[in-house]
Description:
The complex is a heterodimer of chains A (174) and B (129).
Chain A: H1 9-12, E1 43-46, H2 49-58, H3 69-74, H4 87-99, E2 111-120, E3 129-142, E4 145-155, E5 161-172
Chain B: E1 12-14, H1 20-28, H2 38-43, H3 53-68, E2 74-81, E3 91-101, E4 104-113, E5 116-127
Antiparallel strand pairs in B: 1-3, 2-5, 3-4, 4-5
Amino acid sequence: MGANLRLEATLARGSPAASYAPVSCAAPMPVNTSAIGKTFAPGTYAVGREKVKEYANAVGETNPVHLDPAAARAAGYADVVAPPMFAVVFISQTMTPTLFDPEVGMNFALMVHGGQSFEWTRPIVAGEEITTHVSVKDIYEKDGKGFYVYETISKDESDETVVTGEWTFLVRGV
Amino acid sequence: MSFNAGDAINELKVTPDKFLPVRYAGASGDFNPIHTDKEYATMVGLPSTILHGLWSMAQVARAVTDNAGGPEKITSLSVQFRGMGFPEQEITVSGTVREVEGDVATLDVVAEQNGNAIIRNAVAKVDAT
C-alpha cells in the first residue's frame, strides 16, 4: 500500500476531521482543467501580537522584532513584525477550503505539496488586517502527474499587495 | 549586509524536538495528523511522523533573513519540497550567493537532514543594501 503515499500538510489545514481519513488505493482521476482561472471569495485575517509571537517561537525566530513590542517599536515598527513565512497562516485560512473545491477535483490521497513561492512587498505587523484573494492559476498534466497551481494575493487595508504566493500541488497517477 | 557572488552564507543548524510539530501545528493551524500522530503516519505508509514542509521552508527563510539582516530584507523565496524531514534530527540550511545586481542579491539555498535534501532549489532574493 502507500509506501510512497504522502498526504501533504497544507491540504488538511482547517479541514474537517473526516478529511484526514486515509485512502490507500484511490482510483486515478484525469485532470479536469475547467477550473483554471476560477476565483474564490476573499477572506480577511486580523494579525494578532500573541499569534505572531507563537508562530515566531514555533519556527525558532530569535530576532526580538518578532517577539518584543518594545524592540519592534525601537526598530521603527508599530508592533511585533510577522516573520515572512507567517504568510502561510493568514493565507491558509482562506485558501484551504478552496483546495477541496469539487470543480478543481484534486485527489488528496495521492497529492503532495511540490513547490511554494512567495513575494513580499513589505513586513506585516500585529494589528493589521490582511485580505487574501485565491485563484486557480493552472492545472495541467505532465509525466503522468497532475499539477494544480494556486495563486494567492494578500492585500493590506489600503488595498496594497503585501504578499503574493504560488502554491504547486502534485497528484500522482492521473 | 554585503553579499558577493560566490560567497557562502552563514549556515543555520536546527534540531526540531519531538514535540515541535505539535507546537507548529497549533501556531500554523495545520493539524494534519501525519505530523503529530505516529500511528496515523505509519498507517498511511510513512516511516514515522514527518515535519511540516512549510516549517522547513520557514527555516530556509530564517537563514536568509538572518544573513540579510532582518525580515524586511527578503523579497522573494521559492522552494521545492522533496525528501521528508523528521523530528529529533539536525537540519542544516546552507547556501551561496548566486549573483548581485544593483541592490538585489540572489541566493541559492538548500536544507539538508542526514545528507538528504528536504528543501532543494530554494532561491531567495534579498535587499543587499
